[in-house]
Amino acid sequence: MERESFEDEEVAAILNRSYIPIKVDREERPDIDQLYMTYCQMMTGAGGWPLTVLMTPDKQPFFAGTYFPKHSHYGRPGLMDILSQVGELWQTEKDKVIQTAAELYETVTRHYRGDKNATSAVPKNKQTLPFTEKEKDSGDIAVWGKNVLDKGYALQEDKFDSRYGGFGSAPKFPAPHNLGFLLRYSMEEPQSKALVMVEKTLDSMADGGIFDHIGFGFARYSTDRYWLVPHFEKMLYDNAGLALVYLEAYQKTKKEKYRRVAQNIFGYVLRDMTSPEGGFYCAEDADSEGEEGKYYLWSNDEIRKTLQEGIELLQKAKDAKNKFEPFLNQPEEIVEIYCDAYGITEEGNYEGKNIPSQIFSGRDDLAFRCSLTGDELDELLNLCNAILFKAREKRARPAKDDKILVSWNGLMISALAKGVQVLAGDLSWRSDRVSLLLAAENAAGFIMARMFDSRGRLLARYRNGEAGIPGYLDDYAFLVDGLLELYMACGKTVYLEQAIHLQEEQEKLFRDETNGGYYFTGRDAEELLFRPKEIYDGAMPSGNSMSACNLVRLWRLTGLSKWQELAERQLNSFRNAVEDYPPGYTAFLQAIQYALSQGEELVLSGSAGNEELEKMQAVIFKDFHPHAVVAYNDGSLAQVIPRMQDYPVSETLCVYVCRDFACREPVNTPEELAKILTE
Fold first, then answer.
1. In the Cβ-directed half-sphere of 623, how many Cα atoms lie within 13 Å?
2. Closest to 101 (Cα-Cα) out of 33, 53, 67
3. Euclidean distance between CA atoms 512 and 112, whole angstroms
4. Which of 223, 277, 273 is nearest to 243 (CA)?
5. Which of 164, 247, 271, 401 is 20 to 30 A removed from 606 (C-alpha atoms)?
6. Neighbours of 451 (CB within 10 A)
7. For the residues of 318-385, what is the DSSP string, one character each?
8. Gap between the Cα atoms of 45 and 174, Å rounded
9. Please, are residues 547 and 509 in contact by the beta-carbon 8 Å criterion?
10. DSSP string, 132-174
11. Which helix (H) or strand (E) holds 305?
12. Per-residue DSSP letters for 496-513?
């Protein structure tokens, strides 16, 4: 609509004659987007973007929809016709329009207040619902929580696409929190199909066209069932969430493929999405030179010619002659192997061009036919992709959305910190680990230095040297999560202190003291028609879901009852909505799993050199322990966590393994620690 209508002079003439046009960046103002999307869903039964809303001067909508063409056709009303007719209606029957807007306002008000008589056409799994805290005698979370987890799993299993992975039909979105929930469910219910569902989905996405095999990173979603044809836009939050869940799957399964995918995501983000100041940019567009996907698509001839001309790079690659001697004098064979592996054909798989994808290729069979091991085949393909990447870089790149959003940066800090943890103790990945830790710390440092106003209020957006817009719930919740994960990765107390401070600020700014949970906007934010409150976990977790996880972790880490009480209240506040349709709230389900788990509290107490510390971390983070917390007690931690004064600080490092705050005798070696953690 931007090109078709809003940059069109005819449309502009009508808009400027009868309306005050306002264009909203929904990433900068998600509060406005949430509010008016709720209107659209209640008025039309559906939502989506672009969102088009007509409202009275006092901001009350009376008409809403998504995409409208410039002119009416095929039964779809055109924007010019809508604007003309509404403009006339406003002149002749203004009172009727205002009355309609007032009635809609009352309906949405009842909806936000939880009135069961409020009519809504919103699908249950799409609602931005109001939430009322359950009464204290309504049931034990250990009972209702387990029931809702089982229901959530059953409904996910029912929607699972066993052939191609993912859930439902096209379009398919990555939604990493769905997979994170299932990974955790597989721990408690190993007889279930949860792990199979996760692995099938991760394998299909990594093989499919939704993953950029040449330059890395995931596109926003797949337009088809097969993960083949993506919407080519790349979003920071998708790549952060996917890197995290691939790392968790690697911990769980030990499949090297999952670690490689995560590291490739990080390679893309550090190469293309990192600002000079250390923050991470939002997104890369789908279009270049006015065509969607043009930057990423290849003709059969382009692939073949580029690889033929680049074969000298293969010959010069280190150790290439030892491994690929049979192929180096036969470049045509290398080209055929690549085209076979990635489904490159003359007719193409998308509008006459090719999206490199391994979703339909038989990798193991190809390796056997070429007398290569799987790793050797991967290395050969990687060398070919390096040639193609160098050639692709000469094309006009898609535009970059160079805003830096605190919320999305918090997600990426968390993912990078998880990478630091998973790579601990593996000397072959030491340089990668150092790079990931540096990137995570630089991003956190940038936010702390540049993203607060003079009053100490966290801001949401930074661009071109200017930070602005009071931070939303997601900014606080996602950043707290990133800082806690970063503390787990490196043990620097400052990150724990910052996380606790931000959580305390969140309580002051966003807490709904009446009904529980957190509003999306702070009490100091611009006044809208309502203060939205969101828990639905869509492309990203909601701020309320992430906050539930943060509160449980703070409780487990500090042992302080105030965090336990807030965590339990947060979980109970949203029971009604989550019980109604659990698959819509899988990030929140992870908070329930956390609260019900018998996770470990590990205290690393004493002085330690980097090598000694890394050996202990390697044991702790080797396997999938999503509900473990790690405290690094160097003698000063008691100022932040009072219970740390009970742990002696010696000149040598020892580890206390505790469950429900009851600790075993400390151990001093990685071998002893590994034995306890596997019991």
1. 13
2. 53
3. 13
4. 273
5. 247
6. 23
7. TTHHHHHHHHHT-HHHHHHHHHHHHT--SS-SBTTBB----TTS-HHHHHHHTT--HHHHHHHHHHHH
8. 24
9. no
10. -PPPTTS--HHHHHHHHHHHHHHHHHHHB-TTT-SBSSSSB--
11. helix 300-309
12. HHHHHHHHHHHHHHHB-T
The whole-number pLDDT of residue 8 equals 82
Q: How far apart are the first and last CA of the chain?
A: 59
Q: Which residues of 164-184 are buried (b: 16+ CB within 10 A; e: fewer)?
A: bbbbeeeebbbbbbbbbbbbb
CA-nearest of 508, 566, 578 to 542 is 578
* Residues contacting 513, CB < 8 A, separation 6+: none
Q: Is the dihedral of CA 100, 103, 105, 108 positive or negative?
A: negative
Q: Which backbone phi and psi does 655 adopt, to 5 degrees?
A: -125, 125
CATH 3.40.30.10 domain extents, the chain: 2-123, 600-677
Q: Does residue 91 carry a pLDDT above 80?
A: yes
Three-state secondary structure call for residue 523: coil
Confidence of residue 46 (pLDDT cuts 50, 70, 90): low
User: Do the Cβ atoms of 416 and 266 come closer than 8 Å?
Assistant: yes
Q: Cα(260)–Cα(374) distance, rounded to whole angstroms?
A: 14
Q: For 466-481, how does the pLDDT look when each residue is reduced to its tens digit (9 = 90+)?
A: 999 999 999 999 999 9
The amino acid occupying position 253 is T
- Cα Rg of the chain, angstroms: 26
Residue 535: per-residue pLDDT: 92
* Assigned CATH class of 600-677: alpha beta
Task: List, by residue range, all CATH 1.50.10.10 domains of the chain.
Answer: 141-289+401-596
Q: What is the CATH class of 2-123?
A: alpha beta
Quick one: tokens of 36?
A: 């008016």
Side-chain half-sphere exposure of 249, counting CA atoms within 13 A: 32
For residues 220 and 285, the answer to whether their CB atoms sit within 8 Å is no
Residue 351 CA to residue 296 CA, distance in Å, equals 13
Position with higher pLDDT, 301 vs 648: 301
3-class secondary structure, 116: coil
Nearest one of 414, 293, 309 to 355, comparing CA atoms: 293
Which DSSP symbol is given to 7? T
The answer as to CATH 3.40.190.10 being correct for domain 141-289+401-596 is: no
Buried b (16+ CB within 10 A) or exposed e, 307-326: beebbeebeebeebeebbee
Q: Which long-range contacts (CB under 8 A, 24 or more apart) does 574-580 make?
A: 574/131, 574/516, 574/517, 574/535, 574/544, 574/548, 575/134, 575/138, 575/144, 575/148, 576/131, 576/132, 576/134, 577/127, 577/129, 577/131, 577/535, 578/148, 578/535, 579/144, 579/147, 579/148, 579/151, 580/124
Secondary structure (3-state) at 187: helix
pLDDT over 90 (residue 282): yes
CA nearest 518: which of 445, 467, 569? 569
Q: What is the pLDDT of residues 507-557, one digit of tens each?
A: 999 999 999 999 999 999 888 888 889 899 999 999 999 999 999 999 999
Q: Band the pLDDT of 463: cuts 50, 70, 90.
A: very high
Q: Is residue 119 pLDDT above 70, yes or no?
A: no
559: left (phi over 0), alpha (psi -120 to 50) or beta: left
Q: List pLDDT tens digits, range 138-186.
A: 458 888 999 999 999 999 999 999 999 999 999 999 999 999 999 999 9
Inter-axis angle of helices 94-113 and 79-92, to 10 degrees?
Answer: 110
Pairing mode of beta strands 404-405, 400-401 = unpaired
